[in-house]
Specification:
By secondary structure, the protein is α+β, with helices and mostly antiparallel strands. Helix content is 26%, strand content 32%. The radius of gyration is 15 Å and the shape is globular. The protein starts with a strand and ends in a 5-residue tail after the last strand. The structure holds coenzyme A. Residues 24, 27, 29-30, 84-86, 91-97, 117, 119, 123-126, 128-129, 132 line the site of coenzyme A (COA).
């Protein structure tokens, strides 16, 4: 990890970010979606703050993290949903953890109190990563959606969250 830096994502990172997103989707256990969006759609759906990339020593983007609002209601203003994706060739080196730690630090500083996400039960790497980073399992949503790219089969989703211990 000494050769990996976490920095804010910029529009210049778009090709690498979307390519890593697609590679994650291609693995079959990252998302119900099967095609990465165009940058304009990605950009519109993610909050502008709290987007980070991990870069290698030559500036190569190795992974990213970003959040979306979950509700327009003021009561949920501090609740966000995140996505974290690491290049398949760079997995298992602590990059996902470094990205999540950066996200947790920056969202806490901004007063965001809960980060949540849905993870397929088969996604052992994601479940282990999030558990290690302080997320808990809220519950398993059974057969909550159909996965078009997998014969339209019903899939369960593990709903996870991290409630900041620092925001009262
Ligand atoms: C999930 C993902 C982001 C993990 O990133 P990563 O950089 O490989 O993870 P790290 O190396 O930081 O590992 C973090 C922790 O998860 C554990 N972990 C990583 N891969 C694992 C695996 N395949 N099986 C079990 N545990 C695993 C590590 O041991 C580590 O735990 P520790 O801190 O207790 O040692 C990555 O596998 C990925 O991009 N997957 C495809 C996209 C995806 O599924 N995103 C999440 C959608 S919910």
């Amino acid at each position: 990890m000494s050769d990996v830096t976490i920095r804010p994502m910029t529009a210049a990172d778009a090709p690498a970010v979307l390519s890593i997103y697609q590679a994650g989707m291609d693995g079959g256990n990252a998302s119900f979606e099967h095609t990465a969006p165009a940058w304009a759609a990605f950009d519109a759906s993610k909050l502008p703050e709290h987007r980070y990339v991990a870069v290698g020593e030559h500036g190569t983007v190795l992974g990213w993290v970003a959040i979306s609002a979950v509700s327009a209601r003021p009561v949920y203003a501090g609740v966000v949903e995140h996505s974290v994706y690491v290049d398949p060739a760079a997995r298992g080196r602590g990059i996902g953890r470094a990205l999540l730690d950066a996200l947790i630090e920056s969202t806490e500083k901004a007063g965001i109190w809960t980060i949540q996400s849905g993870v397929f039960p088969e996604n052992a790497a994601s479940l282990a990563l999030h558990r290690a980073a302080g997320f808990r399992t809220v519950g398993v949503r059974e057969r909550v959606g159909r996965h078009l790219a997998q014969g339209n089969r019903w899939r369960d989703v593990v709903f996870i969250e991290r409630r900041s211990p620092f925001i009262d």
